[in-house]
Each structure stands twice: as C-alpha cells, then as structure tokens.
Predict the 3D structure of the following.
Amino acid sequence: MQFLFFLRQLLMLPVDLIRFIFNTINDFQNATPRVKALMFSIPALFTAVVGLTFLGIASTIRESTLLTRYTTLAEQTNTEFNQEYSEFIKYNQKRFEELTANADPEKPLDGKELAENLNQDSGTVGLRKKLEELRKTEILFREKLVHLQPSNEEYKFQHAMAHRVLDDQRMLTLLNAIAPTDRPGHLKAHLWLAEYYFVLAQNQQANLQARLYSEAITQANNALMLEKENQTALRIKGDSLFRIGRYELAHEVYTMLVRLDPTTFWPIVELNELRGVSASDTEIFLRSMKIELGKKMKINRNVISTWERHLVAYVQCLLRLEEYSEIRRELDEELEMASTFSDTRKVRETVINNLWAHTLINENSQRTANLKRDGRKMTQQIADGLINNFRTILEITPNSDDIKRQVVALAVEYPEFKDSFYTVYNPQNDPSPPPFVVDRLGVAELLAHNYTTAIQLLKQALDLSPDDPTIMNNLAFAYLSLNTQEGVERALWYSEMALQTLDRKVQFRRQPELMSNFNHTRGSALMAGGQYAEAVGFFENALIGRPNHRSSLEALVRCLTQIGSPKAAEYQKILDELDRNQDFPSPRP
C-alpha cells in the first residue's frame, strides 16, 4: 500500500506543477499593485545578483591572470639581470687586471685614477646601460603587481629590491616604509635592512660605525619581535653588539643562538677571551659543546648537509681543545659509516679527508706557536714531524695553498731548516707562486737587509693581490728601511693604503698583534717624515696590541720629546723598567 501511495504522488507531480502555475497567475491577477511590483522586482534582483557574481568571478580570474603574468615577467627579467650582472663583474675584473698590468711599476698604484678609467671603458658603459634597462623593466612589472594588490607586503618588498644597484636610496625609502624602525613590519625587509647596515658599517669611520651597527640592531630587534627565534636576526644582532664593544649583551644573544644551533658556538669562545673569562671556564663550555655537537652529528647522519655542518663544528671544537687523537678516532668512525651510504659515499669521504688535512695543518700551526710561546728553538726532530704532516696533507689535497703558506713561512722563520722544508714545497720551482708565497720571500730578503730585492718581490706580490693590506704594510716597511727621502714618501703612501684597506677586513682587525704591527709601521713612516705629533697616536695604538713593545715605546719617547710633551717622561719610565727586565725585539713584517 505504501508503494502505491508513493507511485500516485509521483504521477501527480506534473498535475501539481500545472496547478501551482495557474494558482500563481490567479493570485497575481487578484494581488495589489504593491505586491505585483514586488513580484516583478524579484527576477530583476536575481538577475542583478547573478550578474554581479559573474563580474566578480571574471574580475578575480583577470586579476589572478595578471598577477601570474607580471610575476613571471618580473622574475624572468630579474634572472636576465643577474646573468648580465655576472658578465659585468667578469668583464670589470678582466679590465682591472689589464689596467694594473699596464700601470707604471715605478709609481704607486692610483686607485682613484684606475676606477675612473674603468668606469669610462666603452665595454663597461655598454654593459651598465643594459643593466639599467633591465632593472627599469623589472621595476615596471613590480609596480603593476603592487597596484593590483596594494596591501601585499611581499610585492612591496620585491618592488623595493628591484631598485637595488640602480637606485639604492629609493630602495631604502621603500624598505623603510614596510620595515619602520619604531615597530615591527615586514620580516624579510627588517632582515635585509639589518644585514645592509651591518655590512655598510664595516667600511666606515669609528663614529659612523657605531650608529650603523645600532641601526642594524634596531632592525634585528624588530625582526625578532615578529619571529623571536630567527637565527639570521640573532646573528646580526650579536655580531653588531660584538663590534660596538657590548660584549655582555652580545654573549646573551650568542647563547640564545647556540641553543638553537650549536654549530654557532665559536663567537662565544672569542667573547670569553675579550671578557676575561678564565681558560678553565672556556674549556668547560667547549667540552659541553663537544658533547652536543657529537650527538647532533650522529643524529643527522642521514642528511648529508646537516651532518657535514655539525661534523665541521665538532672538529673545530676538538681543535681548540687540541684533542688531535680524538679527531682521528672520530673521523675514522665517520669514514667507516660513510661506506653504508652508497649514494653519498664519495662526497662524505672527501669531507672527512679534507677535515683531517685541516686538522694536520692546524696541528702544525699549534706546534710552531708553542715553540715561540715557550721560547724553544726549532730542532730537526720537530721539523721532521712538521714535514711528515705536510706530506700526509699533500696526499689528501695535492698542491694545497695552506701547505705552501706554512712551508715558506717556516723557511723564512727558521732559515737553518730551509732546505728541509723546501723538500715539501720549493717556491723557486713554482712557475706561478701564490701572492702570499711571494710576500714571504720578500720578507725573507727584507730580514736579510736586501731591501731592493725585497721591494721587487713585495711589489710582485701586491700585483698578484692588490687588496692585501699585509703586503702593503710589508712594502711600506721595506721602503722605510731604505733610509731615503723617496723611501719615506713611498712608505707614507703604502702604510696609509694598508690601514685604509684594513678597514674593510674585519678578520684582520680581530688580531691585536697584527694591528699593532700596522700601526707601528704607519707611525714609523710619519716619524721618518718629521710628522711627530701625527705619529704619536699610531704608536699608542700599536701598544694596545703589544703593551711592552720596545720599539713602539722608544719611538713614542722620541716623538713626544720632539713636540715637548711631558708624557715622554712617563713612557721613558716604562722603557727603563723594561730595560731592567728584558729586551723586546723590533717589529718584524
């Protein structure tokens, strides 16, 4: 019965539909004018809603299509710009080498004139014009993307970055708009500005450096408010605090960074030395890092990039602890484990072998440093041990530049063992010796008082490495040793160039003894030129790195006496006290 009921209802549907239509028409005829108007408006309203919906969908599709199109065009233009910029750098490097090769060897290299000649070169001008056109095209596409989505901060960031190289000031203005200093904005913009100010500070004078490092810290802080464990921001903040001398705050930041990534432990070791932390406390820290890095290294063996990063840091930690046998044991274990990774075995073996070579190089450096520290003489037994390590390293990394550097340095330092060291590497048989090898050969001639030969070799080294402040400093010292007016003038020029170049070399500024050497050379050149007042500051800076340096103290007494300063008596008392204890050697290049 129930089935028949549903069947009847189904058959009556057409009848009910017709009845509904007739009833609707009848109701419409009997309805009031207001109701009739309302019934007429419903289809119109429905049509309008459908139309607007369709237009919205069409607009969205169009916007999405334009976004995709402009994004693709912008990225393609950016890729083309990067390729052309790479060619631009290569061309400039080639022209720079040609111009330096054609320069007058008897005159100091004029960097300003060289830069002007390079900028006016037709090839440089043509490439620069092409780069400008590509940048302008990319900016146009980026502007269209910002116009389509004005609230999209990422589009604004990319638009700002498109102005890089072409108009850095415009880039900074746009970046500051989305990454203000007084509040958090766009994370990537804050990070980029922090890095920008940090790098910019390294090439500035001390007073401006502090302000730029503060800007970097502010931007890093804003980034950390958006992402409190952002490692890039922590690194920039810690490094900036380190460079402005805020060691305690830098230590806090580095400690947080190490908790996130133990491979970043090294700055804490450097800070401990500057903060006067005892060697035992530093050793406790290093041993804790050794345990942590060892665990991370083993946990991440399956991910080769992460494994390599932790292994390198682990070996670096053990090197500081001078646990060379432990390094050998750990590397042997990793070498055995590498055989279980068939797809990355060769890469892992290369990493491990290179680390062992680096370990032996470090061990040799430590041995020679200990000789100097303990005041012991080089013996044939010690020399043979160094040579055996060198030979092992050469089996792993043939033609190693580090080996050449150490061998020649040792031959210069210990000339009585020169023939033994030259069995490993003889620079006289090298048709293309690296610049630091030529520099060391020049220093050897300088120490032997063969000043003309020394100058020739040092100038050759500088031609090979025009931006090396150590070679410039050695060349200034060599010219100063000539005791001629022309030599003094050349020494003044090269010593000034060395210090200017040094401002761009952060790694050199962290070596107090090296900085002392540079300042002493500059002060000596000024003193030889009769500029006693100007020389005083450089000799005082030299004493910062070597407080008991006899030659700097003697020079200070002479300069202060010449200008009639009462401080001459103070330094003379220090000098007299040193004379009662021991003599200190003159500076060596």
About this structure: Residues 33-101 form the longest helix (69 residues). Confidence is low (pLDDT under 50) at residues 583-588. Residues 195 and 236 are 7 Å apart (CA to CA).
